[in-house]
Design brief:
The structure holds three protein chains of three kinds. Chain A is built from eleven helices and two strands, in the order ααααααββααααα. Chain A is an all-alpha fold. A two-stranded antiparallel ribbon of chain A has the order 1-2. In chain A, α3 packs parallel to α11 and α9 crosses α10. The termini of chain A are far apart. Helix content of chain B is about 40%, strand content about 20%. In chain B, α6 crosses α7. Chain B is globular, with a radius of gyration of 25 Å. Chain B starts with a strand and ends with a helix. In chain C, strands 1-2 form a two-stranded antiparallel ribbon. The relative contact order of chain C is 0.14. Classes of the chains: A mainly alpha, B alpha/beta, C mainly alpha. Chains A and B meet through α9 and α10 of A and α3, α4, α5, α6 and α15 of B.
């Protein structure tokens, strides 16, 4: 149940065998640099690289179909809104104006198209990496990885606890919301939003208050097994670093260095082909 | 030999939130290697006593402690939960809330992880403990996906990994079906024997615990230790009924037959119990008692035909289930954990949708009704009242369903008062719900359903977590609803006593369908059904068989006699 | 709260885990149409307000951050970090007032209701109308007018959620903390 929630699928490719900490570090590093850089060549290269890795992890289309569709819809909507709000934003960013069509407010310029292409790349660039991370990393190993990256073990364990309890609480939520529907609450009814919000608060009340009781029970159970006594703890699912891990971390470092050096080459975050 | 391992010296404890001390002047000694049972009704202070042994009191739960508790040579008040946990392993009441790991293996390793044990050593120890408890095959599974018995074993493995000297079990039977409960008690006995540890069991289900030998029983009532005796002494005496703990059924049978318990030998077990001319006297008594009568069936109220359902494609839970519930029935729905008892109720009230089949209620096709409309006909009461209550005041909570249905104020108030009176809550009507006990909260949820005037009630484990006194109150109340108000009731239960005593019909659910649909007492004569449904033979059945009596007839007679004697309160 | 050391208590750790799970579930399942097309009121901000007052700034920040990040991860494959961070920030800042607005003693009257709502409205507007869009412009280079308008809509909707649901939960929680003793049968 836990394992399917975030899409983890056991496998035995080199990506599966990497330590979770390595994958997390690589994911965060590459996302950050991809977020910062507006160099089209760089982000496009990262997209290509992630797709290659995807292939190597033997991930099937059906595993990611739904998410990919959602992302496409979300991205298209956002790109459209950006255009509606600022059709000339690209012009102000790149400092030149190559008009393709239109006049007045709604103009279409090469600069705007190029800017939106960059934006689209940004929306999708981290997606394959994120999916790769979720599908090849055992959730049990996730908390251990966070701790390995020097996040406090207590916060790391809080993450593990939330993964552990999401299915349980989700189940309870469905039970409660149905029994409240039987009482007569109908959240989707055509009533004013304020009325509906108050209704939602009533429906959620049993869920939240029973969860507060749960917090007491779980924390006592954990203290009875010495959680929080020492400054450190070990992890059953911990994986030692191997040569592949170091290689991936080095690779990530190289990618980040390229991204940063492009800032110098381009004289800023933007790669400008119009000049 | 008799080295004390747990000592209470004039211990009094008062919770910060309480006006009175929960434990008063308790002194006791438990010696190394002993197996001790602590019994008492709900609220007697027995769990408080357990929390003093593992140090949750006073370290995690605030309150005022006087006197001294010593465990394994340490003063509990001066020690810490962490240090004590090295000596005392605690298995909590509900294993589900004790599991913190995503997999069984991680959960077992949890304490070692917190000690910073090296990964390789941890894997070795986990494998060894899992092998001891027979759950080696489950290590990679999520603990929630385990069976009830495997969950219990996982919880035990998680504390056994510490090699502690004391094992403390807080109501180990609460969440288990009869057969699993029985094997858990056997497992505890086996661990006690093999590891030579000191075992403390806190439980109000006396008969079930005593199916395996216990050295001593401590009886707690109203915060005081009122008896410190051997099981035999306890059973010979008259203490149990006075404090609201049920004495074993086989002894109730002996009492019914007019046998003085003081003269009984081997009283601890149904297999050894003996008295002069016992067989003959039981047979004579049974022959003189009236034969059990078959209750007349009412007209069909709910008809389920060809019901098919599964949460996913691989596992079919119902494959063509047929069931008829008659008006006025009090049906017990039994079966092992996970067989689909709750699922069936949720299909009836519309929380889940069937893949095929029809369900008609008093001639109406249920498929044509929404969840809300079905609730006007069939009321469903969840096991945990805290998951149903969404208002602070009793009146508001009970009237909620009517408010949401736009019922006029005058009628609403009248119906709320009526429901409160039926449920015995009228005098509390202006109280905040938070001030009520668990059993009273349960009644509030029942009242909140009754105001909608359904024709049938489905209750999920109506007596779970309640002691005998509250259990009897709840069941008598439901029985009155059934007899006086003509309410058709379906009870989902694990409790064999409940089924025998209160139901007029038992439906046993097995894999994919109904295994048996018969009168309660006859269910227990069918060993194949008992095994498949994870039920357990009651001691009445074993007693009847031991002395060559008809178990069905004998069981019915003892229950009927018991009811005549205690009377309708 | 019994752990007297300076680090997080076990109870806070558990609260973070459970709080994150609840935020995740609310974001995923329970949003309420606001009446304006395509804009939903996110009930998780009501819970976050309540939760932060109950468990403090660290729990508020971490649960908000993680709950939002996990939701984005599972729904869109990748978190929109600027907004994820802002959710954490809002929880953290509201949480700073947990000692002053203490609900555990069973008292949450008009004064505290007003104080809580002033705090949550200021925080939500500061977070959603200022911090989140500014970060969007800086980090993602999105056009300013678009992100600020989106920010203002979110600020309104999230403070409505924190106001209505948060207040109801806080008042109800305080009511469960009333002591026995004064209660008589009648």
């Amino acid at each position: 149940m836990n394992n399917t929630l975030f899409g983890f699928a056991a496998g035995d490719t080199w990506l599966h065998r990497l330590s979770g900490a390595t994958k997390l570090l690589a994911f965060i590093g590459i996302s950050l640099i991809a977020m910062a850089s507006y160099d089209t060549r760089f982000t496009a290269a990262i997209v290509v690289m992630s797709l290659v890795l995807f292939k190597m992890a033997h991930i099937h289309w059906r595993q990611i179909r739904l998410v990919v569709k959602l992302i496409l819809v979300f991205s298209l909507l956002n790109l459209l809104t950006v255009y509606l709000f600022s059709p000339e934003y690209g012009v102000s960013l790149y400092g030149t104006r190559h008009l393709l069509a239109g006049s007045g407010y709604f103009t279409l310029t090469q600069e705007q198209l190029f800017y939106e292409l960059n934006l689209a790349l940004k929306y999708v660039v981290t997606v394959p990496l994120a999916l790769l991370f979720l599908i090849t990393t055992n959730p049990s190993e996730f908390a251990a990885s966070l701790n390995k990256l020097h996040l406090s073990y207590k916060i790391s364990y809080a993450v593990a606890l939330s993964l552990r309890y999401i299915p349980d609480i989700q189940h309870v939520y469905h039970q409660i919301s149905q029994s409240q529907q039987a009482r007569g609450y109908e959240l989707s009814k055509k009533a004013g939003p304020l009325h509906r919000l108050r209704g939602a608060a009533q429906v959620l009340m049993p869920l939240i208050f029973s969860s507060l009781d749960r917090i007491e029970t779980i924390s006592q159970a954990m203290e009875l097994r010495r959680f929080g006594r020492d400054k450190h703890r070990s992890w059953y699912m911990d994986r030692p670093f191997g040569a592949a891990d170091w290689a991936v971390i080095a690779g990530t470092g190289v990618i980040i260095a390229i991204g940063l050096s492009l800032f110098a080459v381009n004289g800023g975050r933007f790669f400008n082909p119009f000049r | 030999m008799a080295e004390p391992i747990i000592q209470f010296d004039h211990v009094t404890f008062q919770y910060d939130s309480q006006a009175e001390p929960t434990l008063q002047d308790v002194s006791l000694t438990i010696t190394r290697g002993e197996k001790v049972l602590i019994v008492g009704p709900s609220g007697s202070g027995k769990s408080t006593l357990g929390n003093l042994i593992n140090g949750l009191i006073p370290h995690a739960i605030p309150g005022k402690l006087t006197g001294k508790v010593t465990v394994c040579g340490q003063d509990v008040a001066a020690s810490s939960v962490f240090d004590l946990s090295q000596h005392v392993g605690t298995v909590l009441q509900d294993p589900d809330s004790q599991f913190v790991g995503l997999t069984t293996a991680e959960d077992i390793a949890f304490a070692l992880e917190n000690d910073g044990t090296a990964v390789a050593a941890m894997h070795e120890r986990v494998a060894a403990v899992a092998a001891t408890l027979g759950i080696k095959g489950q290590l990679a599974q999520s603990p929630q996906d385990l069976s009830g018995g495997q969950k219990q074993r996982t919880a035990m493995a998680g504390v056994l990994i510490d090699n502690g000297q004391v094992l403390l079990f807080d109501e180990p039977l609460a969440a288990l079906d009869p057969a699993t409960g029985k094997s858990s008690i056997e497992l505890i006995a086996d661990l006690h024997h093999r590891l030579g540890v000191t075992v403390v069991i806190i439980e109000h289900r006396l008969e079930d615990v005593l199916t395996q030998p216990v050295d001593r029983v401590l009886v707690i009532d109203n915060g005081r230790l009122i008896a410190d005796v051997t099981p035999a002494e306890l059973l010979h005496g008259t203490l149990l009924p006075q404090i609201g703990v049920r004495s074993p059924l086989y002894l109730q049978a002996l009492t019914a037959a007019g046998i003085d318990l003081a003269q009984v030998k081997g009283i601890e077990s149904v297999t050894t119990v003996a008295a002069p001319n016992l067989a003959q006297r039981l047979a004579e008594w049974s022959a003189a008692e009236a034969r059990p009568t078959k209750p007349a069936a009412g007209e069909p109220l709910l008809r389920v035909q060809g019901l098919r359902f599964g949460y996913d494609k691989q596992t079919q839970i119902f494959d063509g289930l047929d069931l008829t519930i008659n008006r006025g029935d009090m049906v017990a729905l039994v079966g092992r954990n996970g067989v689909g008892k709750t699922t069936l109720s949720q299909l009836l009230v519309g929380f889940e949708q069937p893949q095929a089949g029809t369900m008609t209620f008093a001639g109406t096709d249920l498929a044509s009704l929404s969840i809300k409309e079905r609730a006007d006909r069939i009321g469903y009461i969840m096991q945990d009242p805290n998951q149903m209550i969404s208002k602070n005041l009793i009146r508001d909570e009970v009237g909620l369903g009517l408010d949401l249905r736009g019922v006029a104020a005058a009628e609403r108030d009248a119906r709320v008062d009526e429901a409160l009176r039926i449920c015995g809550l009228y005098e509390f009507r202006h109280w905040p719900i938070s001030a009520l006990s668990f059993g009273q909260k349960k009644r509030v949820t029942i009242a909140a359903i009754l105001v909608l005037r359904p024709e049938m009630l489905i209750l999920d484990e109506p007596t779970a977590g309640q002691d005998w006194r509250h259990y009897t109150q709840m069941m008598r109340f439901l029985e009155r609803l059934n007899r006086k108000h003509g309410m058709t009731i379906m009870l989902i239960t694990h409790d064999m006593h409940l089924m025998l005593e209160y139901a007029n019909r038992t439906v046993v659910l097995g894999d994919r369908g109904i295994l048996l649909d018969a009168q309660p007492a006859s269910v227990l004569s069918d060993t194949a059904v008992i095994k498949a449904a994870s039920l357990a033979e009651t001691s009445l059945y074993q007693l009847a068989k031991r002395f060559g009596l008809d178990p069905y007839r004998f069981t019915s007679q003892v229950i009927a006699h018991e009811r005549r004697v205690t009377g309708d309160e | 709260m019994n752990n007297k050391r300076n680090t997080l208590s076990v109870k806070t750790v558990v609260a973070i885990g459970i709080g994150t799970a609840i935020i995740f579930i609310l974001k995923r399942w329970v949003s309420i149409p606001s009446g304006i097309p395509n804009t939903n009121i996110d009930t998780s901000y009501g819970f976050l307000g309540f939760f932060s007052i109950l468990f403090g700034p660290i729990a508020g920040f971490v649960s908000g951050f993680l709950g939002h990040a996990l939701t984005d991860f599972t729904a869109y494959g990748s978190p929109w970090w600027t907004w994820v961070f802002t959710t954490g920030l809002v929880g953290g800042i509201i949480g700073l007032f947990w000692k002053r607005l203490d609900v555990t003693q069973g008292d949450f009257g008009v004064k505290k209701i007003l104080a809580y709502n002033s705090v949550q409205i200021l925080t939500n507007f500061g977070g959603w109308a200022v911090v989140a869009p500014t970060l969007d412009v800086l980090v993602y280079s999105e056009p300013a007018n678009k992100v600020y308008l989106q920010g203002i809509v979110s600020a309104i909707s999230n403070s409505v959620s924190a106001g209505v649901i948060g207040t109801i939960l806080l008042v109800a929680y305080a009511a469960t903390r009333t002591k026995k003793g004064s209660l008589k049968k009648e």
